[in-house]
Amino acid sequence: VESLTPSSAFLPRKNRTKVYDLGEFGVPTVPVIGQTSYRRPDEPSGWHVHKGCVEFIYCTSGSCEYESGGRRHCLKPGMMFVSRAEEAHRQLDCPKGYSSLYMLFKPAGDRTSRWFGTAVAKLPRLFTCGRTIPMRFGRIFSMVEGNRPREEARIRLQTETRALLLDILDSTALTVRKGRSDALDGIAERMRNHPECEYPIERLVEECGMSKASFMELFKMTFGRPPYAYLLCCRVDAAK
Question: Which carries the bigger pLDDT value, residue 75 or residue 12?
């Protein structure tokens, strides 16, 4: 496993279009932010980790597979892949037509940054995002590439990167507001048809692509009881 520091996390490659270090603009919590577009297939990355950084990868077109935590995750347009700090992961393919927006987040010592670090650590590895994510990235790029006074650029970039992180965190709650999901219905049906099986919460959470808290809230709201209590009822019914 290769251990990458923020400065070497994304080396310039023929297909890469943008990569910036916001630390140079007074935002040390975002050492890398960029955009990738593959005009032709390229060599995928090997196993690596980002020292002290959480990586966000948002797919804008095409599709790509990533591996982490012993599982493969297919990233499609509108979806976000999250690699937690110090977690080994790799990109399995770099197909033509795949493009993405990406960012490394490095929690600092201030209170706000610590709060973001705690909240980000609870995110699932893969989930669908809201439509504001590409807009936030675009605004950050335009600020970096503009000619604003340095202090104004710093304040605007700090505000916009925090807004981007909040939008990412809020994206997992969108599933709750949409109501009953197909994935949740499938889990409940499996519990009814096969109550003898085990259903680890960690596996169910990743299957639905939401945080544990959001999954528990949505399941209870939909079926009237938490997952394990629902499974017990299914087992009792089967025994009867």
Answer: 75
